[in-house]
Amino acid sequence: MVKYVQLPLIETEAKKTNYQGQVIETNGLGNRLAPEDRVFHDWYRFVLSYPAHLVSYYMSNFGLKKGQVVLDPFCGTGTTLVEAKRNGINSIGVEANPIAHFASSVKVDWDVNPLHLTQIAQEVANQTLSILAAQGIDDNKKSDPSLLQGQLRTLSDEQERLILQDSISPLPLHKVLVLRDVLSTRQAERCYNHLCLALAKTIVFRVSNLHFGPEVGVEKPKADAPVIASWLGEVQHIVKDISKVYNKEHPTSTVLLADARNISQVIASLTIDAVITSPPYPNEKDYTRTTRLESVILGFVKNKEDLRHLKKTLVRSNTRGVYKEDDDDQWSHKYPQINEIARAIENRRIELGKTSGFERLYGRVTRLYFGGMARHLEDIRQTLHPGAQLAYVVGDQASYLRILIRTGQLLAEIATEIGYEVVRIDLFRTRFATSTKQELREEVVILKWRG
Ligand SMILES: C[S@@+](CC[C@H](N)C(=O)[O-])C[C@H]1O[C@@H](n2cnc3c(N)ncnc32)[C@H](O)[C@@H]1O
Fold it and tell me: Could you tell me where the beta strands, DSSP code E, fall in 233-271?
């Protein structure tokens, strides 16, 4: 019998969206960001990120000590890794999306001289400003893009097809591309990656027309926006955080670009003391869209093939990422509960007369999702120390024709079959889904590996 526990309530600064970007009713240990959650974490986060205080809660709940190793097999932008580093715990992150992997790697790299960072940033900014000035562009004054037509740099047609239409206006894009190219002449500098990460954040949150919540979308286009000053502002945030830790001893943090379903190929046996993570949910969200603009501009995704390759390395959680040759459903066949849900979805589809290609895949993607997670849970076992404790943050879903998927409960059942002990399931928060008028639970499944 699984034990359900309500997490304690903590008061922090208000934030209205959850890490899937949905407006939430918070109860329990909510998604609100405490000011201390921003240090390092804010260098670049995405809408999928969970709050840092959730990680510190479990590090303390698990009694993790210095010298031990925590793993986040779906590390996203590195919340677990940063929090582990701040608390003196060694960490390993695994992430399949190259820009998220890059962000995590930079966010745990604290050995960059802050004075050097400031100096190189200023040189790059000055050089960019003079190139723009020679083109008649003052970054701090609004320019009329129509007067500059023909001189503005653009993305290639292929790159344009990869990003959401109108996600960035022509003049800001031009300035970003000039800055990016000046920056790329400084690749040999130790602080180069930090400067690139600051540019990624500037592109998305200061310059683009993107908005997040619940899905990534495009809002009213900004004809112009200061790019260089915004970028320098982001660099200054990094400099401020790094100044506090530079030249000090830190625990190790390793970030691997890999698939969490094949983790034993990249992590040595019996090395992990705890896992704190949030995998994707079966919620019909294309996780790669969230990071598409900065991935394309910074060259992490160059063409359709790169995107396809990236999607194939992700656990299937939406029908846009399903391929004919996918076979993770093999792993779900032995779980009758998963087959039952997939059948219920398919029956509902037939009953409602829904016939689009995507709707026909709803049942299959559910099997692929749980099969992928079963594969991950099986594979990760050999990397765990006996006694390792694991926390998986997952949400219930009803995205497929309103059939309720109790993600946490199902994962707990799969984990039991695989040999884990299900210690309890914590309620992180609930979200009211207007489409189904149901309370959906976001839970933390707590497992133990006895070896
Ligand atoms: C909910 S997000 C995690 C967010 C993270 N906790 C944070 O705070 O930034 C899930 C992440 O899992 C990654 N992912 C999905 N399938 C993966 C796989 N098979 N291997 C590694 N990472 C994967 C996605 O790219 C995404 O970044």
Answer: 253-257
Look up tokens 């900065």; give the residue.
294
Establish whether residue 413 lines the binding site of ligand 1, counting it when its CB lies within 6 angstroms of any ligand atom.
Answer: no
Instruction: Tell me how far the alpha carbon of residue 430 lies from the centroid of ligand 1, in angstroms.
Output: 21
With a 6 A CB cut-off, is 31 part of the ligand 1 pocket? no
Q: Is the CB of 95 under 6 A from ligand 1?
A: yes
User: Nearest CA to 53 among 67, 77, 35?
Assistant: 35
Q: Tell me how many degrees the CA angle 8-12-18 measures, rounded to the nearest 5.
A: 80
Q: What whole-number percentage of the chain has pLDDT above 90?
A: 82
CATH architecture of the region 4-110+252-283+318-449: 3-Layer(aba) Sandwich (3.40)
Per the listing, tokens 């800055």 go with 179
CB atoms within 10 A of CB 287: 25
30-82 per-position pLDDT tens digit: 555 677 778 999 999 998 899 999 999 999 999 999 999 999 999 999 999 99
Atom of ligand 1 nearest to the CA of 261: 19
Mean pLDDT of 223-235: 96
279 C-alpha vs ligand 1 centroid, how far in Å? 6
Q: Establish whether residue 287 lines the binding site of ligand 1, counting it when its CB lies within 6 angstroms of any ligand atom.
A: yes
Q: The tokens 């009329």 sit on which residue?
A: 144
> Could you tell me the distance, in angstroms and rounded to a whole number, from the CA of residue 76 to the centre of ligand 1?
5
What are the CA-CA distances from residue 116 to residues 121, 249, 340 (Å)? 8, 20, 59
HSE, side-chain direction, 13 A CA sphere, residue 242? 22
Q: Give the pTM.
A: 0.93
Asked whether the bond before 214 is cis by omega within 30 degrees of 0, the reply is: yes
Per-residue pLDDT tens over the stretch 364-393: 999 999 999 999 999 999 999 999 999 999
How many residues are there in the chain? 451
Is any atom of ligand 1 closer than 6 Å to the C-beta of 57? no
Query: Boundaries of CATH 3.40.50.150 in the chain?
Result: 4-110+252-283+318-449
| 280 Cα: distance to centroid of ligand 1 (angstroms) | 6
d(CA 209, CA 341): 38
Whether the CB-CB separation of 405 and 341 falls below 8 Å is answered with yes
- Most distant CA atoms of the chain, gap in Å: 71
* Ligand 1 site, residue 49, Cβ cutoff 6 A: yes
Q: Ligand 1: which of 38, 48, 104, 313 to mutate, judged by most atoms within 8 Å of the beta carbon?
A: 48
Q: What is the secondary structure of 224-244 as a DSSP string?
A: ----HHHHHHHHHHHHHHHHT
- d(Cα 68, Cα 369) in Å, to the nearest integer? 30
